[in-house]
């Protein structure tokens, strides 16, 4: 979908290239994160893709078409662009900001208005409450949502995002990341996102390209594979410690081998060993024998990280694993978790 073929950029008067011989394939509908130290050429790479700057050499393809020579304005309508500073026009309403590109495309007023409302809904802002406001009347996180809506206005197949959640407080940032992933599940754009935050990269990326100096690709793979097997010392040091814990966020409880679970419907039923009391619909209530202690119940589709967190907080060595309806499907013991959890450095 987006393909860079030996792309280089040397800024005038600079001894070193900002981007050197970069080749990268981004598939339809995936989020590729460019991750690397400050100054390694991430922003330059994004701006090369939408031709805000021109490559010194190399070629860029969009949907199989060589776009190195097409009209940059037309190209930019096919690629949404979201930046950290959002860049909303302060004297324009939210609706006018979002409608900017549709207006330049000559859409009629009614179509623009419908599209603006649709986009505000999509990014979780009530159109009636927000379309007439000005950017300064919105929080940073809300402005960021408007920035995303504006980038999506003309329904481009691809989107470039430069540190989109960078300037936002950690709690709002997590919420926006979650909302962004929900949105992407609906719209399936092809996205290249720049960050220098490993946690963000692991959470958002289908694949991560770890870039070194001059945007040289040091490793390009799934978050899980990079955490498990960093390609070299540079990647390993960039990932740093905590790789094992980060991987726990990527694996679901259901992927681990679970122990058997015994269920009872009537608290008076005698059973050997530990059993889970269930209600009339078969949903887990608690461990039969511990009416006063909290029972750790985790869903099979939750991350192993969340299971560990819940078990540590409850100081319990065993969790009841349930399906999406709350019915027990097995148990997860602490010892099995330590034994079976995927760890960094371990090939699976
Ligand atoms: N307009 C410019 N003129 C000259 N050099 C530039 C220009 N823009 C960027 N550079 C240089 O190119 C290199 C790559 O910069 P770029 O902004 O792409 O890096 P980055 O990885 O996005 O960095 P950061 O994470 O700090 O934003 C840097 O050495 C930078 O100083």
From TrEMBL:
Domain CBS: from-to ranges: 291-348
Highest taxon above the source species: Bacteria
Keyword Translocase attached: no
PROSITE patterns: ABC_TRANSPORTER_1, ABC_TRANSPORTER_2, CBS
Domain spans labelled ABC transporter: 2-239
Pfam families noted in UniProt: ABC_tran, CBS
Top EC category: translocase
SUPFAM superfamilies assigned: CBS-domain pair, P-loop containing nucleoside triphosphate hydrolases
Record flagged with keyword Hydrolase: no
Name of protein: ABC-type quaternary amine transporter
Lineage, broadest ranks: Bacteria, Bacillati, Actinomycetota, Actinomycetes, Streptosporangiales
């Amino acid at each position: 979908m987006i393909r860079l073929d030996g792309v280089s950029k040397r800024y005038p008067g600079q001894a070193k290239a900002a981007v050197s011989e970069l080749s990268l394939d981004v598939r339809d509908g995936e989020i590729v994160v460019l991750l690397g130290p400050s100054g390694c050429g991430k922003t330059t790479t994004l701006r090369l893709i939408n031709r805000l700057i021109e490559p010194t050499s190399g070629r860029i393809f969009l949907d199989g078409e060589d776009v190195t020579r097409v009209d940059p304005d037309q190209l930019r309508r096919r690629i949404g662009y979201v930046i950290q500073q959002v860049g909303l026009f302060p004297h324009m309403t939210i609706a006018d900001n979002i409608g900017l590109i549709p207006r330049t495309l000559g859409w009629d007023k009614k179509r623009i208005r419908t599209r603006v409302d649709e986009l505000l809904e999509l990014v979780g802002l009530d159109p009636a409450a927000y379309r007439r406001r000005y950017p300064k009347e919105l929080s940073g996180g809300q402005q960021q949502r408007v920035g995303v809506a504006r980038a999506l206005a003309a329904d481009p197949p691809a989107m470039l995002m430069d540190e989109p959640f960078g300037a936002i407080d950690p709690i709002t940032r997590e919420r926006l990341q979650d909302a962004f992933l929900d949105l992407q599940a609906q719209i399936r754009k092809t996205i290249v996102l720049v960050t220098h935050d490993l946690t963000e990269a692991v959470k958002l990326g289908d694949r991560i390209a770890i870039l070194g100096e001059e945007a040289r690709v040091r490793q390009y793979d799934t978050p899980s594979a990079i955490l498990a097997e960093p390609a070299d010392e540079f990647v390993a040091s960039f990932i740093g410690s905590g790789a094992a814990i980060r991987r726990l966020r990527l694996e679901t409880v259901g992927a681990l081998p679970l122990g058997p679970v015994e269920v009872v419907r009537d608290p008076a039923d005698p059973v050997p060993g530990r059993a889970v009391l269930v209600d009339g619909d078969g949903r887990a209530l608690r461990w039969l024998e511990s009416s006063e202690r909290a029972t750790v119940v985790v869903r099979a589709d939750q991350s192993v990280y969340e299971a560990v967190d819940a078990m540590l907080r409850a100081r319990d060595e065993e969790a009841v694993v349930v399906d999406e309806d709350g019915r027990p499907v097995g148990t997860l013991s602490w010892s099995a978790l330590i034994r079976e959890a995927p760890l960094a450095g371990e090939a699976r």
